[in-house]
Amino acid sequence: DVKVTQSSRYLVKRTGEKVFLECVQDMDHENMFWYRQDPGLGLRLIYFSYDVKMKEKGDIPEGYSVSREKKERFSLILESASTNQTSMYLCASRTGTGAGYTFGSGTRLTVV
Amino acid sequence: GENVEQHPSTLSVQEGDSAVIKCTYSDSASNYFPWYKQELGKRPQLIIDIRSNVGEKKDQRIAVTLNKTAKHFSLHITETQPEDSAVYFCAASRGNTDKLIFGTGTRLQVFP
């Protein structure tokens, strides 16, 4: 079974802090994604990466950046956390086109 | 922009009844349509998917139908059981890419 592991289940951060959310997958998948999940809005794509050091903006990239230095690891960075970034963050990976995503367990981030 | 609409947002059924969730998409180039089930506090998990060259796919009590002309697809669950209670998300690919656009989710409750 593909494993996608997110380092933290729950995080509480202060406004203005720089926040790192880590995601690691163990199946050599090329594609990795960061989504945020909010009630009534479903899952919205923040950024995705299709290879090491390659990234593309999703639908809501403002206030976020990403890093992919190694194929197995995809990090989401909140440059200066704000209260409207309080959300559930889900990482996913996928092998090539036409395959389903495998999601991580999610990180529930609260910015106070 | 592209979007996926999902209805209903909540659905309550008696155990043993059928449940149907419907989604419409706007991108005529979408070619991959997965469905995810998310139980409370858990990660979304792929339960069934369909590609644009197929009109229907079935897996035990779950089936998905696709109408490309009308740009809508549906999830059908027969003989529902309490363990089917969860939030279900539909998704559509952005054209022939690896990116998915998700619907806003349907909370299904199956009462014994």
Form type of chain A:
globular
Provide the gyration radius of chain A in Å: 13 Å
Number of helices of chain A: 0
Low-confidence spans of chain A = none
Name the helicity range of chain B: under 10%
Number of DSSP E strands of chain A: 11
Distance between the amino and carboxyl termini of chain B: 41 Å
Report the end-to-end length of chain A measured between terminal Cα atoms: 36 Å
Which range does the strand content of chain A fall in?
over 45%
Sheet bearing the most strands of chain B, described?
6 strands, mixed
Shape descriptor of chain B = globular
How does the major sheet of chain A shape up?
A: 7 strands, mixed
Give the oligomer, counting copies of the same chain as homo and different chains as hetero.
Answer: heterodimer
> Counting H and I runs of at least 4 residues, what is the number of helices of chain B?
0
**Portion of residues within helices of chain A:** under 10%
Category by helix and strand content of chain A: mainly beta
Order of helices and strands of chain A: EEEEEEEEEEE
Low-confidence stretches of chain B: none
For the residues shown, what is the average pLDDT of chain B?
Answer: 94
Task: Provide the descriptors you would attach to this structure in a database record.
heterodimer; A: 112 residues; mainly beta; seven-stranded mixed sheet; four-stranded antiparallel sheet; 11 strands; B: 112 residues; six-stranded mixed sheet; five-stranded antiparallel sheet; 0% helix; globular
